Each structure stands twice: as structure tokens, then as C-alpha cells.
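Pilot study result, target chain (176 residues):
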Amino acid sequence: MLTAEDKKLIQQIWGKLGGAEEEIGADALWRMFHSYPPTKTYFPHFDLSQGSDQIRGHGKKVVTALSNAIKNMDNLSQALSELSNLHAYNLRVDPVNFKAGRGWGWGMGTEFEDRDWNGGTGSRGWGMETEGQGFLSQCLQVTLATRLGKEYSPEVHSAVDKFMSAVASVLAEKYR
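Predicted structure:
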């Protein structure tokens, strides 16, 4: 459960990123593809080179969705309803991909079941890992820490983890 302090920390830190959504998302995705090479197989239609239009575009979508969720932290279900519907009914992403174990996982399922959520050919959805943090989650945390330095404190890291766990839960709601 997010505390008032968690929400405040998330909003403050996210506010420092304004206008850099594409850059942050692209960096996190690029890190994921290069730190966890098997993830590349789920984006066969992407140019996976650093700074490609596809990585930048998808990265922006991921961070924009997170920004919307942050603006609506008190009503995540409503804020993410359309995205949850997309995954459950259109893309038919296996709900096991949304289970969060320790921490959150906007990354790969335990069997590398993550897919691009942009609706392109072969796209399936955002995967949530079942044990440990997801690959994209880890890479996003590194991107944020690199960009924000000392401002990305352990307290901020913890708040972001809690928030992403809540997001994962909402994305799996339509399967219940």
C-alpha cells in the first residue's frame, strides 16, 4: 500500500523528468535488450539499435502510461482500465505475466513471456515477472538512478517499487 509519503516522493521525482519521457523510456528499453538479450526475441519487428525510432516510440508509450498512473495514484484502476482491457481482451496476455513477486516487474515473465504492448504485429503486452524484479523494472530503476543521482534515494526507490507493484496488480484485474 502506498503511503502519503510514498506518493509525495513519486510525484516529486517524476516531476523532475518532465519532457524526457521518450529518452527515459528508450534508455530503459535499450538497457533491457542489452542486459537481457533473450528479450530481443519478443520484439522481432523492432530496430533494436540504440536510439531507434521504434525503441524511442515504445519507450515513450511506457513512460507516458506510468505518468498517467502517477497523476491518478488514488484511482489506478480507472487510470489504467483501458490498458488493462487491451491486455486482457484484445491482446489476450496470459495473466501470469502480471503477477509481481518481490518488487514489481515491468519486464519479462519467468519464461520470457513479455511482449511489446503497442499493438504491432506479434505484440502481446507488458509482462510482469513472478519472482524478483522484472527486467524492464530493473533497467528503469537504473535509468532513473543514473539520471537523478543522489536524488534517487533508497526511499524513492522503495516508493517506486511499491507503486509499480500496484500498477501490476491493476493490469491483472480484468482476469479476476
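One observation from the pilot: The chain is about 50% helix and 0% strand. A full batch analysis is planned for the follow-on phase.
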